[in-house]
């Protein structure tokens, strides 16, 4: 399993197949090149670029997209390529075993209605990776090898990121949801996570494969 981190919250996983998670409007469209399947954590534009997914589906009619049922109306124009999944469900996507967790986006403000959000544990025969979307959902029923931890967002504070890493106890952790910070601000947050997260942590540049 080769995991490539693209800008903000987009991940591309190559190995059994090509699986892309959260190809949003902040991310490079090249993440979707040759994609067999796409996982969407939730409907916000920094996690779902509808035009980019539409272009990919036009090039590859066999593309499959998996998302919470609440997101499917956003994908209606793509026909039957989209499949609804919910918390606790396991399924196969692009040759990987995937399990969905959570169900709701983290609270931004009490006056802003919460929307659906899923975290995904993606596994092959050798390893796994967990990406939570816009939440700090902990996959409590499994050991996580690689965790992607949100670094900055309107819905979070850094202590939550630190406690999230401590709760999951992964083999290693990498920054996610990171394009809202300046480089200077990122260094401050990274330093705290390196010292306090309790595991090996890194903040990689877009395009890095781990």
What does this structure look like?
With 210 residues, this protein is α/β, with parallel strands linked by helices. The chain has one domain (2-209): Ribonuclease Z/Hydroxyacylglutathione hydrolase-like (Metallo-beta-lactamase, Chain A), CATH 3.60.15. 17% of the residues lie in helices and 30% in strands. The chain is built from three helices and 14 strands. The protein has helices spanning 50-59, 158-168, 183-196; strands at 2-5, 11-14, 18-21, 37-39, 64-67, 82-84, 90-93, 96-104, 116-123, 128-131, 146-150, 172-176, 200-202, 208-209. The strands form two sheets. Strands 6-5-4-3-2-1-14 form a seven-stranded mixed beta sheet, with no helix packed on it. Strands 7-8-9-10-11-12-13 form a seven-stranded mixed beta sheet, covered by helices on one side. The longest helix is centred in the C-terminal third of the chain and has 14 residues, at 183-196. The radius of gyration is 16 Å and the shape is globular. It starts with a strand and ends with a strand. The model has no long low-confidence stretch (mean pLDDT 97). This is MBL fold metallo-hydrolase. InterPro entries: Metallo-B-lactamas, RibonucZ/Hydroxyglut_hydro, UPF0173_UPF0282_UlaG_hydrolase. Residues 7-192 form the Metallo-beta-lactamase domain.
